[in-house]
Every structure is written in C-alpha cells, then in structure tokens.
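User: Can you predict the 3D structure for this chain?
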Amino acid sequence: MIEDFEKFDDGATVTGDFCIVGAGAAGITIAREFLGTRYTVILLEGGGLDSEAETQKLYDSEVVGLPHTGIHAGRARLFGGTTTLWGGQALRFKAFDLQEKSWVPFSGWPISSADLDPYYERADQVLQLGPRLAYNDLCAAFGVEPPAFDPAKLYMECSQWSPRPNFGTTYRREIKNARNVSVLLHANATGIITNQSATAVENIEFRTLAGKKGIARARFYIICCGGIETARLLLASDRIESCGVGNGNDLVGRYFQEHIHIRFGNLLTFDRRHLQNLYESFFTKGLKYAPLIILSDRVQTEKHLLTILGTVGFEPAPDSCIVAMKTLFRAVIGKSYPRGNERKRLIRNALADPGELIALTYRLYVQKRAGTPKRGPIYFRAQCEMAPNQNSRVMLGEARDQLGMRRVKLDWRLGEMERRTAFEFIITMVSEFERLGLAAFDRTQIATLEDPAEWTGMAHDSAHHMGTARMHPTAQLGVVDPHCQVHGIANLYIGSSAVFPTSACSNPTLTILALCLRMADRLKQISKSD
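Assistant: Here is the predicted structure, written as structure tokens:
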C-alpha cells in the first residue's frame, strides 16, 4: 500500500521486518523481492508521488570543488526517485571492470563477474530489457557494414534502453496493491539510531517538512538514497558515534566518483548518412539498442588508463524543422505558448522542410533506426571513469535544511589519470576514423586536453553519484562488506552506487539493481535462519 505520513499522528511508530529508506530504483527493486512473502516491508520516501519544489530544496548543496550540476538537477525526491529523470540506458560491467588494476589505486571489487552475472539477468527483467544483442549482429540484421576498427584499440558494443524506465509509474500499482509492503510518502529519514555499542540499528527517525515526526523499527534496515544522500544520512547520524554511522575509519563520503562527460570537437564528413547508419540507435521488437565505441582493455593496460566509451552525436541545426517541432511540442505540453515573432518563426521553420519530417518518420517506423536531421554538427561525446580519490568527497556543511539536517558540501576532484584517458581516447578515435575514411576531426580541442590546468573546463558530471560508502572486505578500507552490509553493524545494509569501489564507464543503474537483488537473496536466507 502507499500512504502519506502527513496524515499520520505525530510521533507514530511503524514496524516491519525490513525498513528501506528511499523509493527509487534500488528501494523499489528490493521491496518487490518480498512481495507476497510472509515478511513485512516499510518503504520510507521523502517525497510524494509527484515532484514538489519545497521537497526538492532539501537537496540544495554547497559545491566547493569542480562545478557539479547533477547535485541539484540530477536528483529527484519522490516515489520513483531519479528514474523519473532517467532515460533508461543499461550496460553491464565487464569482468575487467571489476578487477584490481595495479595502476589504479584502491581499484578492484571484492566480488567477480561470476557473482554478478546471475543477478544481471534478473536486473534485465526488472528493467524489461530484451536479449543482449551484439553490435555486429545488429548491423548484419539491418544491412550495415560495421566499422573495421583495430580490435586491439577500439571495439563496438550496444547499450540497451529500458522501455519503461520510470519506476514511479511502472511499479506503482504493484506496490500500491501489495499487502505486505507499506510505502510512507513525505517520510524524510533524518537519523539512523544504533544501540550504545553501535553494533545494531534500533530504529530510524523520520519527519515531514511540517515537522511531524515518526519512528521506523525493523529487523533489517537498507539505505537506498543514492551516492550523495546515503553518505549524508550516515554522516548526520552522529548521536552515538560523533563521526557518524559506519564512519569509524573516516571513509563515509570519501572516494566520490562521477562519470566524466566530455564533448569533443566536430567531425567533418562528406557522408553524413553513412555515419548515421553506423552510430544511430537500432530498434528491434520495440527495444532500443545504442551503439557505443569502447577503448580496449589492452590499451588501458598498456597505457595505464581508465575505462572510457564514446558515441557519435548528431546535433540538429538551430533553424531545422526538427528543433522547431520539438520546441512547439514542449510548449504545448507545458502550456507555455511562444508569442508574436517567436511563434511565427517556429511555425515557419517547422513547415519549411516537410520532406525531412517524412524521411525521419519513415526511418524510425519503417527502417527501425533513430533518425537525426540532415544538417547540423556531428561530434564525439565520451563518458569516462574516475580513479578513486579519497579527497573527492561528500561532507556536511554548516547550513541546515528545513528538516534541521546539515546540508551537503561536495568537493569533486579530477586527476591526471582522467585527463590522460580522455586524451588517449580521442587520439585513438581520431586515428581510427581517419584511417577508415569515416571522417576528419576538428583538432582545436586536443590542445586543451593536453593542458592539465585547462582540460577540466571540458569535463562535466553525468549525475552518476558513486563511491561514497565503498565496498571492501575490511572495515579499514571499506564502509560495507561484499554483501553490502555496513561493517560492524549487524542489521544495516546499503543498496546504492555509493558502494561501488570503482565505476567503470557504464551507467550505474543496472549494476545497482544486480547488487540489490543479490542483497535481497542474502537477507531472505538470513531471515529464514533467524
């Protein structure tokens, strides 16, 4: 069932076998694992069913390191969490991604791909993904000759896109009708309360923006608040231990990682349609597969680099009919109609090239390929892993929010390995594209990538917040153990990208779900034996 805590009495206590904090992808996935069982689940969600401006203000934060837009624009406090913002892209971590690398300090996961693969299969089902299809097989099916990259340098792979990525709508009815799962909306967790020895959680305190308080008691507690808010809640829970829950070794909030998003300069080509055939998304059986260019494990090893992938982007010209149509569509949906000359300009541009609209419609619905305009810039964009850095971190500032909690202070830092990875990747891509005659490249930005003092101006965050409660077999080097249980606390677990020791270059949600499904199985086993 789904209830609003604003309708409860002040000071109410709720009880269950499991208490999950955060009703995003992780929290909803874990709760679904217990549907129809004998176990009762409490799911605390700070927001409502829809986005609310006052609730979102709880995420207002201080940024003291590199600029970071995702700390505000990339988080959503409502039922469904950031899946309400997410496009649904999914890609598994490879075995190589989880291995320790001698040139990357603090790298290596304490679990292997063999531990994760069965749960990736189940996570695919949660996201309603189809079969994993190789890029070359898709090219063959669509009559496209794949690019003959040197496999020792680059290879092609496709990410999958969930057809229903918004968990807030996809799984709302199922959760609402569940007899043993209770969602409490507007129940903002403000403190994890442990026993005096800090070896077990006794309850979680929560409250509404209006100040109404509640307590959740359970046998097991699972924090599913995302990479930033998970660290904030642990650090803020300082009633028993002044440094915060799970922070005896000063690790909570450290090793904050992002996927670095970089846009490189324009590609120059006389055969735009050929590039579109190679790099626009495929659609088969209603599912989307997006081509990706990935730096080989061999190059990473030989040159001591991080993982990185890229795509070719096709940007419409500002005056194209596609831009005008999209702008008018958004205006109608948002009921913010353009006026006067601006409206006339948009209508004129939208009707200027009906042939292009027909061609793009034909490409999408008949040829089953994503369609992009015939005019406009073509560019590379890359998504790069970060090396774990203990000084890149989430902290608590002095300012407090409406709940009385200290706000987040973020110090996001990048290093030389990230710069070298971006530089080597673009050089490799340019060399291969030019060797194959696919395109030439505007090299003006390469000088920026060569300059350690300037390159961070090209780097932007991807709103993928990871690493702040990292996984390691020992408490000296990790906040959680290989089963995502907080070291030294018998009944506290974390279901979040916060536990990632390293982040590879794949979007994190699929791996979060795999870890959460694995955790749920373990909790079922432990509960049976109790």
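The mean pLDDT is 91. The first strand starts at residue 2 and ends at 4.
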